[in-house]
Amino acid sequence: MTIPATFTGIPSAPTTTAEPAVSAATTVAALRGKFARPRTSVPLYLDGGAVAEAAGLEQILTRAREADEMSNEDPTAPAIEQQLLDAHERAEASRVDFELQALTHRAWARMVAEHPPTPDQLADAPVSAKPDFNVDTLPGALVRAQLLRPDPGTEQEWSEFWDDLSDGQMAQLWGNAYALQTRDDGSLGKSEIVSEILRSYAGS
């Protein structure tokens, strides 16, 4: 049993042919109202203790099941399974989904300019990996600027919230925010999974 992160949906009805949603003849002015910058939902478990407990119990349960198979004694796995379910339930009860939306490229450029790397950060980094921004101040600023839900509140409230996060929780939010901002969404590319789904519908 694992604590789920995110889920992806499958289209309920496939299309065998796809026409461009926007004609090539459409003016750029008309396209402005059709843009939808990328979004993502990041699950954050505020009860880090329950998450850690569940992860540890999963390992213990695996060993207990193996031991039970080789033992004639009463099995120990059922009790551990219940503990795991309890920890999982507490973790899920603390889950909050953070909905993020990428900034425009100009807003992102301004943010990077407002958070330049410090002299110490530049001096400590290898020549081939000099930071483009202040790695201490930009992560929280980017997540707050992208955040659609929940409401980030005032700057002070957000700062206090950010300071209370563990390294893992912060990395979860910041890593997804940075990937959302910088990933290339220029093309859907060829999806083997989508192709497989379409073939299955075509054969039914």
Considering the chains and any ligands shown, give keywords for the structure:
single chain; 204 residues; mainly alpha; three-stranded antiparallel beta sheet; 9 helices; 51% helix; disordered N terminus
General shape = extended
What is the mean pLDDT?
85
Percent of sequence in beta strands: 5-15%
Structural class: mainly alpha
What is the H/E string? HEHHEHHHEHHH
| Order of the strands making up the biggest sheet | 1-2-3
Q: Give the number of DSSP strands.
A: 3
How does the major sheet shape up?
3 strands, antiparallel
Helix content, binned percent: 40-55%
Radius of gyration, CA atoms, in whole angstroms: 23 Å
Task: Please count the helical segments.
Answer: 9
Q: Span from first to last CA?
A: 34 Å
The poorly predicted ranges are: 1-17
Detailed description of the structure:
- By secondary structure, this protein is mostly helical.
- Helices cover 51% and strands 8% of the residues.
- The chain starts with 27 loop residues before the first helix and ends with a helix.
Brief synopsis:
The protein is mainly α and 204 residues long. The protein has 9 helices and 3 strands, in the order αβααβαααβααα. Helix 2 packs antiparallel against helix 3 and helix 6 (138-146) crosses helix 8.
